[in-house]
Structures are given as structure tokens and as C-alpha cells.
Amino acid sequence: MNLRVETRQPREGIAVISLAGEVDVYTSPRVKQEIVNLLNSDVTRMVVDLTGVEYLDSTGLGVLIGGLKRARERDGDLKLICDNVRILRIFEITGLTKIFDIYRSETEALEKL
Amino acid sequence: MSETKPLAEVELNIPSRPEYVGVARLAILGVASRMRFSYDEVEDIRLAVGEACTRSIDRLNGGQSADGHTIRLRCLIDSNRLTIEVRNPLVKAGPRPEPVPDVSGLPPENDLSGVLIRILMDEVDSEEREAEGVQILRMVKYVAR
User: Fold this and answer.
1) Does residue B55 contact residue B9 with C-beta atoms inside 8 Å?
2) How confident is the model at residue B6, as a pLDDT?
3) Residue B5 and residue B130: Cα distance in Å, rounded?
4) ipTM confidence
5) What 8-state DSSP symbol labels residue B37?
6) Contacts of B21 in chain A (CB under 8 A)
7) What is the pTM of this model?
8) What is the strand order of the sheet A45-56 is part of?
9) C-alpha A47 chain-centroid distance
10) Of A24, A82, B58, B75, which sits with the fewest C-beta atoms within 10 Å of its C-beta?
11) CA B59/CA B62 separation, integer angstroms
């Protein structure tokens, strides 16, 4: 599978999910499951690090929107890290830069979470 | 859209399963890279084809790995444009579940592929040929002069 998913919890109640590779119709269910597992274990504030993502399609965007929705329902939040111009462009053309807070570094994202 | 005989034609059939969408993306990357598209345009075409295949899979089997449907990708290469047809068997969709009322103010989770295809490609149209039992999504990208 062309996606690596690594999760760690730098502080209690906060998780950083690092993705590397391709997030598409085949691989995005893994990301969704990871987010759901965290929410079910009361981790409601999370950062998804897209720095290593080379490809992101609408199913990947859908999983992130769903994660944000479910996190907010539990008074949490989901923020993104991304510095890849191609991936940022997908957020821009779909209008999702108005929905997501996107940061360049983990330090910055965790500060604002 | 493509009124004259194309300079070249490339076809690929993939099973309607999520793990094969990446194969279609790789194939179109190879085709588009041989034309005079910029790097960004090649990436746009690759994403649009991935989205089109994903839509076909969603229509055919609700996004689940299953059954023996085939998605046919047909690339018509001209000097000034690339026309891509994504063709799948016409399957009458069953009733979709009633959408759950959403008060989050966030966009729907599964409604972005059509938006992306229309933004990324220069021309997009779709047709259902009931007599042939096929559904075709046709996309065109023009080479910038």
C-alpha cells in the first residue's frame, strides 16, 4: 500500500497523524479509521501532517472534512500541516483553505490547537 | 469534441476496484508527459483521471471492492489537446440513503470529485448510452499555445 500512517501523542488528548505517500480512494479508509480510533479513545484534538503526502484526491479531502466535523462535535479540532504547493493548491481550488487551518510546521500547528 | 481522427490513441481497461485507480493514474501520467503540457498541467490531468475512475467505482459498486466490472480509459492524443474518455457499464443506481441533516456548516464529505474535475480540465461532459449500456465521462485538456 502506498501510504504510511504514523500516529503519536505529544501531549495528553492531542495526536499528530503523519501521512506519507498517496491518499486516495484505496488508502484513505486507513486515515479515516485512524481518526475514528483516536476520537473513540477521547483524543479530540489532532494535527494531520501532510508534509510527506505526494498525492491527495477528493476521498482524502472527504476524510479530513469528516475528521474535522467529528472532532468539532466533541469540542475538539483538527488542524493540518502542509508545505507542498501541489497539495495546497487542491485545498485552494476546492475552497477548503477557508475551512481548514493549515500550518507550515508542527510547532505552529500545536501552538494553535 | 474530437471531430477528426486523433494522432494516436491509448486504451487501458482496469477492474472497478480502488487498488487499480493508481494504475490508471500512472498510465495517464505517461501519456500526458509525452505531450507539450507543463508539469502542473500533467498533475491536473492525473488528478482528474483519478477522480473520474473513483466516480465510476463509486457508481458501480458503492466504493466497495467487488464484482467484475471494468472501467475503460481511452486517451485520444492530438497535437493541441488530449481527450480522455472514462467509460463504465451503465448501472441503474439504487435508492441512496436520505442525507443526514448537517448543521456543522462544513462542506459534504463526498461531493468534491465533480468540482475538481471541472476545475482541472478545460472541457467536461458526460453521457449515458442506454442502448450500449455505458456511461461515459469525457474530459479535454488543451495544450497552451
Assistant:
1) no
2) 86
3) 25
4) 0.90
5) -
6) 24-26
7) 0.90
8) A3-11, A14-23, A45-56, A77-81, A102-103
9) 6
10) B58
11) 6
Lowest mean pLDDT among A63-72, B4-13, B19-28, B53-62: B53-62
Chain-chain contact of B104 with A2 (C-beta, under 8 angstroms) = no
Q: Please report where in the chains the cell 508545505 appears, as a residue.
A: A83
Q: Contact B104/A24, CB-based, under 8 Å?
A: no
* Domains of chain B, CATH where assigned: 8-142 (3.30.565.10)
B102 contacts on A by Cβ (under 8 Å):
69
In tens, the pLDDT along B2-29 reads 467 888 999 999 999 999 999 999 999 9
Return the ∠ at Cα A30 (arms to B62 and A9), rounded to 5°: 150
Sheet holding B123-129, edge to edge: B8-15, B70-77, B81-89, B134-142, B123-129
The answer to whether residues A95 and A65 touch, using CB atoms and an 8 Å cutoff, is no
Grid cell digits, residue B94: 439504487
Among chain B residues, CA nearest to A68: B106
Residue whose grid cell is 455505458: B134
Nearest residue to A12 (alpha-carbon basis) of A42, A37, A40? A42
